[in-house]
């Protein structure tokens, strides 16, 4: 006999501190300068209680190598983009091609550049930032341990720096559904499946260096589209995790005819790192960054809300160098790519044991 699923509440923010919905301290992002797009790590985010009419700003630490002696950048949040919004161009300098960031003797390489060759030095700076981004992309580190059981066989954490992004319990992730989830073939091919996150854990004794992600698998639907499994249940708005509640409120307001909703495909599914594409970003926050506020507002008034998630890259598809895996901390992951004396000003909710 079929039983209606129980919709349990999602984990609360650690120490009551809600992570920003868009950019978070420690994340790798793109930011715009007069000369083009650059890569950096968010070190300070805008206050959550921003005054109306004040454009939020963030501070970014440009990545390259500390010997380039770059300075922190204070910029409008609107000039930044999530790392997975763009693809990293190929490295230009032949001596650096097909090498990992840590394989390069940067001190010796930079000594080989003459002071008057400013163009080559600029290209080297850009290449080093691309290589540093690739290194960050293939690494992860966990933070804020919340439980341990079975003598340390399973350790639960509130968050993880997964490649470019900072992910916390209660977040929603874009995922690919593997056959081991025992769902339908149609579900395995879904381009827009989501995971609402209930647990992040490691199993350092049995499978060291791996992270596991437990939560509920959702499929967003519009109009008369049918779910990928017959047993799928439409989830009441108040039972959705916060990011999907906010998404539904936005879409109901501007595109009610779409009848956007989420159906539950599986509860308490356990996914692995390769199954995760990246963070789900609220459409009303991300779409104006990609398309411009004026265009998004004009379309919303016509009842048009575009699917912004499909325009983001999938993390594993961005890998160009060998997988690194677990590191002790975010600073350990980024290494000498940060400017000298840099500090990531994490909230008290981010507690790194290896820092």
TrEMBL record:
Residues 157-281 form the Cryptic loci regulator 2 C-terminal domain. GO terms for biological process: silent mating-type cassette heterochromatin formation. It holds the Pfam family Clr2. Coiled coil: none annotated. GO terms for cellular component: mating-type region heterochromatin; rDNA heterochromatin; SHREC complex. PANTHER family: CRYPTIC LOCI REGULATOR 2. This is Cryptic loci regulator 2 C-terminal domain-containing protein. It comes from Colletotrichum spaethianum. The lineage of its organism: Eukaryota, Fungi, Dikarya, Ascomycota, Pezizomycotina.
